[in-house]
Amino acid sequence: MQNIDLIIFDWDGTLFDSVGQIVKSLQFAARKFQQPLLDEDVKSVIGLGLPEVMQRLFPQVPELHEQILKSYSQHYVENSGSDVWFDGVAELLDALKAQGKLLAVATGKSRKGLDRVLAQTQSADLFVATRAASETRSKPDPLMLQEILNVTGVPSHRALMVGDTSYDLEMAQNINMPRIGVSYGVHAVNVLEQFAPVAIVDSVEKLSEILLSIIHN
């Protein structure tokens, strides 16, 4: 891998241990409006923007999308206060930052949701740029990555996308950006492999080994 100046992270399932609560909150909202879902269906859309999630999960009831989203968001906010970074993430981000790497976030969250968890983790100052799906196009469209590149002035081949879903890796592939998949989040290894990542890791420890080695390249 060539020298990397900018590392862009997905949030949920990559940095933040929140997938379980996302599934519970979407299931809660679905049951409230008599729209049963399988856990596998919910996990398959994590990473997309919320409007795209509604279109994928509830195409038969577009008139309920706004109400389901409101119920989901309320349940998530009320029950996600104990969600935290995966073990080792805080130390990894601090180490990368200390070595002069630029860090950014590209997430399927809304801006409101991202700002809430940045405040919850007191991590806003770690990132030179953040993009949420509500203010740009949803993954796998690469627009949010292009916007981050525009802000930082880093070309795509000197940036790296790290994510746990096919949407993350496809988004990076669409802009010829190197990418690493993490299999401890949502999508399985065989799904991530389809988008030619430079590596797939199954723990934050192994992710740290790869990313910290970049410092010395």
From TrEMBL:
One Pfam family hit: HAD_2
GO molecular function terms attached to this record: phosphoglycolate phosphatase activity
InterPro entries membership: HAD-like_hydrolase_sf, HAD-like_sf, HAD-SF_hydro_IA, HAD_2, HAD_sf, PGP-like_dom2
Coiled-coil parts of chain: none
Region forming the signal peptide: none
The keyword Hydrolase appears for this protein: yes
Biological processes, Gene Ontology terms: DNA repair
Gene Ontology CC annotation, any one: cytosol
Keywords linked to the UniProt accession: Hydrolase
UniProt protein name: HAD-IA family hydrolase
